[in-house]
## 1
Amino acid sequence: MIAAMMTAANLGARVTGWGFIVFTAGSICWSLVGFWSGQTNLVATNVFLTFVNLIGIWRWLGRQRAYEDGAKSASQTSRKPGTPTLFAATGLSAMPVSDIGGERLGRTVEAMVECGSARVSYIIVATGGVGGIDEELRAVPIACFECRADGLILLETKAAFERRPALDGEDWPSRAPRPASGRETGGHAAIPGMETAHAPA
């Protein structure tokens, strides 16, 4: 049960990898039980599961952990003065989002990229709910965000953000919604340091 929660929670390569370690320990124990009790089917099943779990350990604690560590290293190094700040693109699926006053709004769940220009068009922000239940999704143009290493700052008030229409299930827009007016955003028009986020002239 613990291993299932660790892998299902998707809390990163290390947590998922350790979940597979717990799975492996369990399958080895059941293999021994089957061996001592003469249950051939139990042994065969759990030997196979042990093999599968070992692949999971290699996948998450080996390869995927190395990817995440590499991205984290690049992100931390880029925070030096005079260096453009970097963050892993995969982080756009779970970055915290705050409004212009610093109040936490929610988190990002996805970013939509224009194929022709390779630029981020808009970001989906999830608010409310627990575990995805009763949450609301809103599409926000990339030009409305300021990118920071520890999250995104929405250059709007919470009230302006909540006036944006909530998305209807899986029906996401084919193009970025229009940015809010300068009155609602405090006059900001672009995201410093993020080339893809400049507002149109």
Note: The two ends are 55 Å apart (CA to CA).
## 2
Amino acid sequence: MSGTRGRRLRRGLAAVAVLGLVGGGYAAYAASGAEAAYRTAVAEVGDVEQTLALSGTLTPSGTADLQAGTDGTIAAVPVEVGERVRAGQVVARLDRTALRTAVDRARADLAAARAQLEADEDAQAETVSDASSAQGDSSGSSGPSGSSGQSSPSASPSAEPSSDPSSDPGDTPDPLAALAAQQQAVEAAQSTASAALADARVALTAQTEACADAYEPAPTDPSGDPSDDPSSDPTPEPTPADDACATALAAVQTAQQDVATAQDALQAALEDLTATLSAAIAALGSSSGDQTGDQPTPQTPQTPQTQAPQTQAPQAQTPSSDDTSAAGSPTVTVTAATLARDQAAIDQARADVVSAVQSLRAATVRAPHAGRVASVAVSTGDSVSAGDAVATVVAP
């Protein structure tokens, strides 16, 4: 009896515990359900953007439209449509016979210009050397003499004490070394002036292109009130084209100032060399006059090489006194301006060599990256100009 009562008691306690758990769970659920909130929205289609920040090596991808780099005739097209090519592989090649000839001609012109400059330098050196020899002979042949042809006994001893004992004959500057320095100064100044002129032309071309669309007036609103005072309109804000034009204008002004500075230096170098040559010519004329006595000096015609071309050395002008030659001498003096003209010719010939070599290299069209040939626009024997389409290569 007692055992039956105990089992019933345990069952009752278990039932109470189960009811307590169920009641507590329901109470918790009811409490959380009362505070829960939901947000609803209408679904729609849109774009999702995501940016990834990565680091690594870039490889070419996309389409490359290959063009002819110079004028000429297609000599070979070693690829076909659909063929795979590697980076640097030849896609087309122009006939390079004429281009090689142009390179050889340009190099020959450069060699001839250098030879002309060397010959003119030697001619000037010969003039100065002859003048120095004439002055030495004149000073050596002059001696103390009387009107009767007999020397005075007191003349020779009185001449020695009057000389400066501190003077050293070795301190006399070498006239040929001074001439060479002046020649180099003229040539360097001419090269600088030529380069400055070329830079100024490039800057002017860039400025013309940059200012083509700059400072355009803003379009007017046709719906505006015509009675408005136009002077009350605010100043328009500068556009990117305006800023680019202003920058290009400043570059042109700087280039023009560089040209003026270079031409001033060239003019100074020309004047120094002209003074040296004029002094040498005067010394030769004096020596020739001493030898010919009172015979009249013939008028020497002016050398036509008195002014360098305006496109190369606009300031390379020398006085006409530099163009005279020694009286009675058949030698024509090479002027300082002639030397500047020779250097300008060398600079132009050097630029022609660079241009010819670049054209020769541009005759070979190569794939810029690996890929597949999508199209070929030329065939062997076609005439093309620089910029014409040759082929299209699509990267994998």
Note: Residues 143-163, 292-330 have pLDDT under 50 and may be disordered.
## 3
Amino acid sequence: MDSIIPWDYWVNLIRPYYPSGKRGRLPKDIEIMLRMYLLQSWFSLSDIGIEDAIYDSFAMRKFMHINFMEEQIPNSTTLLHFRHLIEDNKIGEKIFEDVKERLCESLWEMERRIKKELEKGIDPNNNKITVLELVKKYVEQKT
């Protein structure tokens, strides 16, 4: 997920609404909060559930990009406030629209490449290829 999520863009969607830290405790990094929020959404976990799951799962800890020797993950109350910030400012809808646009763009690009290959009717090695093989070839090039 790290390679396909536009972290900078999504963080900048949140930044205007995020606490500045001028009063009270310093806020956690936006990207850390966003990563925790996404994990919670993907795995349908409660605030406390995702906090526990991150400590229990190496994959989730790695995804969080936190050095656990230096800092702790945000607690469930911090995540609750972050989720409310996302919901109250309709940032989730903005992220969803961005995902849709990026998927459509990728699909259009894939369709153009497939049409171009089908017009040729052959691959570079002069073998006949199917649409499925073209899709696989495209996916391999993107990864």
Note: The helical segments are 7-14, 30-43, 47-56, 58-64, 76-88, 91-120, 131-142.
